[in-house]
């Protein structure tokens, strides 16, 4: 076989491998729209390859926000950690014990220069349900007014709360402070399920 044909087949094999990885990445990202990973989790496919399901991050969380995904989700995801932000908030512990406990580095703080503080991790997306939020319906509330730990993430306009999507990290502290049921703050994964029109 001449060198040009060998080069052609190598190129085809490389493209096929790249396509397979991209397809796997899309598939796990679609499933990941149903849960929220702990702080500084790697991208979903990399996370699944790195995470050993040891449970160290779950044990390390002082607020018991981290839990193991159930077996019904399949062997690919069962036992991997996620955040229960529907019921509890991440309090952004100063020393990030869940991340420090992760020996395989599936949770990995970004490297910064000595003396610098890494930016806060983006955990999830938060949104105010104006149909449930009391100030949006007329009555005064303000229960969440002092709950947000991130400057500029929770804003107030005409006595109504608004979440700045660029500043918000999705810790869920505003949701936890909300006094209405169901809560007027929605929390969702950073991953989004594709719409019916989107290609598989």
Features:
11% strand; 200 residues; two-stranded antiparallel ribbon; Alpha-Beta Plaits; alpha+beta; globular; 2 domains; 6 strands; disordered C terminus
Short description:
With 200 residues, the chain is of the alpha+beta class.
Produce the secondary structure layout:
Elements (H helix, E strand, L loop, with lengths): L2 H29 L12 H7 L5 H5 L5 E3 L12 E3 L13 H4 L24 E4 L5 H4 L16 E4 L2 E4 L9 H5 L7 E4 L12
Antiparallel strand pairs: 1-2, 3-6, 4-5
At CATH level 3, the topology of the largest domain is: Alpha-Beta Plaits
Main pleated-sheet profile: 2 strands, antiparallel
- Morphology call: globular
**Spatial extent as radius of gyration:** 21 Å
Number of helices: 6
Tally the structural domains.
2
Please count the beta strands (DSSP E, at least 2 residues each): 6
Question: For this structure, what is the CATH class of the largest domain?
Answer: Alpha Beta
Strand ordering within the main sheet: 1-2
What is the annotated CATH architecture of the largest domain?
Answer: 2-Layer Sandwich
Describe this structure in words.
This protein is an alpha+beta fold. The protein has 2 domains: 35-121, Alpha-Beta Plaits (2-Layer Sandwich), CATH 3.30.70; 123-195, Alpha-Beta Plaits, CATH 3.30.70. The protein has helices spanning 3-31, 44-50, 56-60, 97-100, 134-137, 173-177, and strands at 66-68, 81-83, 125-128, 154-157, 160-163, 185-188. β4 and β5 (160-163) form a beta hairpin. It is globular. 28% of the residues are buried.
């Amino acid at each position: 076989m001449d060198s040009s044909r060998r080069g052609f087949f190598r190129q085809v094999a490389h493209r096929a491998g790249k396509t397979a990885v991209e397809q796997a990445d899309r598939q796990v990202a679609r499933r990941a729209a149903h849960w929220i990973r702990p702080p500084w989790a790697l991208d979903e496919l990399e996370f699944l390859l790195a995470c050993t399901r040891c449970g160290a991050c779950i044990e390390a969380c002082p607020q018991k926000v981290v839990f193991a995904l159930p077996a019904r989700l399949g062997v690919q995801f069962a036992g991997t950690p996620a955040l229960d932000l529907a019921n509890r908030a991440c309090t952004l512990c100063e020393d990030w014990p869940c991340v420090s406990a992760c020996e395989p580095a599936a949770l990995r703080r970004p490297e910064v220069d000595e003396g610098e503080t890494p930016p806060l991790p983006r955990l999830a997306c938060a949104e105010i349900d104006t149909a449930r939020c009391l100030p949006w319906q007329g009555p005064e509330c303000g229960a969440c007014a002092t709950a947000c730990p991130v400057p500029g993430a929770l804003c107030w306009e005409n006595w109504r709360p608004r979440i700045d999507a660029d500043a918000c990290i999705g810790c869920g502290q505003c949701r936890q402070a909300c006094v209405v049921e169901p809560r007027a703050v929605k929390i969702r994964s950073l991953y989004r399920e594709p719409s019916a029109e989107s290609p598989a």
